[in-house]
Amino acid sequence: MSALIASANSFLFVPASRPDRIAKALASGADMVIADWEDAVSPYDKDAARTALMAACGAWAAIDRSRLLVRINAAGTPWHGADVQALKALVQMGVAGGCVPKAESAEVLERIAGIGGEACALLALVESVAGLDAVDVLARVPQVARIAFGHLDFQVDARMQCGADEIELLPVRMSIVLASRRANLPPPIDGVTVDTRDAPRILGDARRAQRMGFGGKLCIHPAQVAAVNEVYAPTATEVEFARKVRHAMQQADGGVCVVEGRMIDAPVLRLAEQTLARHDWAQQRMGASRN
């Protein structure tokens, strides 16, 4: 499975009916771009959007195609079958895989993976109570790379009326984080922030996601990408402390030691290693953006 998908923090949705926007999204700094055949495209434009993406894909560089996922229409819709067949062709062109909405059945994910081929990574989007009930099974489907939370659809399905802080969804979010960990998947991806102009809100939502154990966030506007990337990149102070922890533990041959007045043991070392891994990924992203 793609190391890029496993490490990615920012996932930017773009209507697949607008290939020109996809090219701009790929240059936005987003780790992954999701070309959307589902919610962003009207029922009357589905076939044209599929054709447009197929036609445009070949013009993009291979590295850009590897950063592209395609959100297909859900199983049971009139467009699903044609979407899966087109996804297969796109994966053969180097696209990373598909984002599967309304994920509720391992059988559906396995069928999509079987058609898409071994190189087809899947992002399973949990958007319903049934999806939450099945999340442990979904997370163990071999080609599922990560789980994502579609919290807006989930609220509708569960008949919830959440406050602005979405505190009512904390147990659901934690269930998804723990299911991903039980399946040994990379941390899951949190849902979108609908207000594209509220910079403090996107930062706050991303920080909550990061604190809870999510490894990234879905975005619906390029302006949100930088905030998400910023949250997932450790500060210089955090990186310096993590390096001190690693050095001190090496000097102590893995035993307990003290750094800046704090007792350091194996769990603290693991947290430090995670911080340094996030730093390495952020540095890699910055290097790619300069090239």
From TrEMBL:
Keywords: Lyase, Magnesium, Metal-binding
Keyword check for Magnesium: yes
Record-annotated HpcH/HpaI aldolase/citrate lyase domain positions: 10-222
Cofactors required: Mg(2+)
Domain of life where this protein originates: Bacteria
UniProt binding sites for Mg(2+): E127, D153
Pfam families membership: HpcH_HpaI
InterPro entries cross-referenced by the UniProt entry: Aldolase/citrate-lyase_domain, Citrate_lyase_beta/mcl1/mcl2, Pyrv/PenolPyrv_kinase-like_dom, Pyrv_kinase-like_dom_sf
Residue numbers binding substrate: R71, E127
One BP annotation, GO: oxaloacetate metabolic process
SUPFAM superfamilies: Phosphoenolpyruvate/pyruvate domain (SSF51621)
Molecular function via GO: lyase activity; magnesium ion binding
Keyword Thylakoid found: no
PANTHER family membership: CITRATE LYASE SUBUNIT BETA, LYASE BETA SUBUNIT, PUTATIVE (AFU_ORTHOLOGUE AFUA_4G13030)-RELATED
Protein name: CoA ester lyase
Lineage: Bacteria, Pseudomonadati, Pseudomonadota, Betaproteobacteria, Burkholderiales
